[in-house]
Design a protein that fits this description.
The protein is of the alpha+beta class and 180 residues long. The chain has six helices and eleven strands. β7 and β8 form a beta hairpin. It is globular.
Length: 180
Amino acid sequence: MRYKLGDVALVRGGKRLPKGAILQSKGNGHPYIRISDYIGDTFDINRIQYVPDNSLEILKKYRVNSGDIFLSIVGTIGIVCEIPDNLDGANLTENAVKIVADANVVSGKYLAYFLKSKTGQAQIQKFTVGTTQRKLPIKNIKNIELDLPPLFIQNKVVRELSIIDQKIALNKRINDNLAA
């Protein structure tokens, strides 16, 4: 069945730090996820910076949970990944959105694979606007169209693609070890 993303998932933007606030490199348990922290297929925990304690209250509505989908919407548009467990509760930059799938209709992992796919990336580019500073508005993200098979088929597809991803990761580790 054909759906619009906004009908099967919640799409919420991140938040800029309050004026005058500066991220800190010293860990305080309040990470702030930026596009520049994304390397390869996940976030580089060594690049993560932290929200100062005095800015937490303002940013509390802009947190992500593990399993949410991260989508970059300004600058490098179209980076897609699931929020890993070690960043559960992190604060989200204004240059990205979190997408929370309606588990009754769509698997979050299936949705992430779709958004990473050639078809998903083409839709992301189609809905991107602007010439000087390109941007993917939230209202446009909600209009991304996708065909959804029944959940049991989505889960089967996710299982198969996860096996392939695991094999790719293993091969990369082997190659890295051989190169070292």
